[in-house]
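Notebook, student rotation project (T.W.).
Task set for the rotation: take a protein with a known small-molecule partner, predict the structure of the complex, and write up what can be learned from the model alone. Partner molecule chosen: (R)-mevalonate. Sequence and SMILES entered below by T.W., checked by me.
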Amino acid sequence: MVTVHSGEAPFVVSAPGKVIMFGEHAVVYGKTAIAGSVDMRAYGLAAPRSDQQVRLVLPDIGVDVQLDATQLPRLAAGDLAHPGDVEALVGQRIGVPDGPGRTAVLAFAYLYGRLCAGSGAPGLSLCVRSLLPVGAGLGSSAAYSVVLAAALLQLGGQLQALGATAADRRLINEWAFQGEQVAHGTPSGIDNSVATYGGFLEYTRGRDPLPLPSTHALRVLITNTNVPKSTKALVAGVRALRDAHPAVVDHILDAIHGISATASALFQSPADGGALERQMSDIVRLNHALLSALGVSHPALERVRDITAARHMPSKLTGAGGGGCALTLVPAGAPAAAVAAELAAEGFCCYETVVGGPGVAITRTVNAVPVAAWIAATAAQAADIVAGFAALSAADIARLAPARG
Ligand SMILES: Nc1ncnc2c1ncn2[C@@H]1O[C@H](COP(=O)(O)OP(=O)(O)OP(=O)(O)O)[C@@H](O)[C@H]1O
Ligand SMILES: C[C@@](O)(CCO)CC(=O)[O-]
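Predicted structure of the complex:
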């Protein structure tokens, strides 16, 4: 339990989404995965208030709830067997129907309960917006959890330097992982690690994430199939398959581990561009085939794979699968624009993205102007700071994050 600093001026926290290059699902079983941050982020405006009210505004998913701080129970370590059990404690009170909004409010209630709640806990308005598609495999949930954890830790005076030190990041990552457990049950921790640390990471559950000093720039196309999926259900499906056929599924998981090990070596190798692209293409194809064997592909993902393969651009699903996004390697000279147009004609959304940008960031100013004043000037018609933040254009909101280093 910490004392929330109600004297803190409004500030903005942001955290990136992720793309898993190799190793999703296998990473849940202790195998290695390789992931990088994408240049789309979640942004949270935290404004302390003096009236003991806690307001959570999530405009992307239609949530605006206000509770008296005393309605959110203080939670000590050990009060709950699993962070997801918070539902049983506060589920009745939050008045939000099932769906993304409910999960998001429960993750907040858990982290607020652990980090802030208690007698005398002051109020707070927190508004989170995201430029990441929700539930598409790009780690929108982890970016949201990292924003919550960093905002509440900052309010509690638990961070040394606005989230910038190694100790700050470790703390943010640990708490964000608990927020992810509310949403996903048994996540591996890779998504929140990428959202916290940014860059490229080699990740194995239970070990510190290893930043990969990639010597090769990788162009990728991300295609959102717009098919909704549930990470929790897909992870549970793989678990059921493994329980039924351990001797088969464990070999598949080991093979995926081998792919991540190959990718890690390739990222750090001095191989020339052509050789690297050939080997990367092979392992992208192999990884997708293995994920398909685990039952987490979808006809829309197979369609993306066929369209891009016809142009010699290999694709794999990224994230949990079952819909969501595919990742396509764009080798030098590949007709990325033509392929993106072909995919768009089939109703898919494509983003060409830069992988490996900055992780979590907390800012109190924009170009030396305090956040509150900057929002007031940028969204001049808004009634208050939360409404102003909610009204910012995507281009303006992106100015609240650090530039790519
Ligand atoms: N803009 C947002 N505002 C509030 N909550 C969000 C937002 N985006 C995502 N979330 C939270 O994240 C959840 C989506 O998690 P889900 O795992 O389905 O998708 P994802 O994280 O985008 O995909 P993946 O885990 O495969 O990378 C939502 O239910 C909500 O709780
Ligand atoms: C499917 C999975 O491996 C990645 C989801 O982005 C689940 C996890 O690692 O928690």
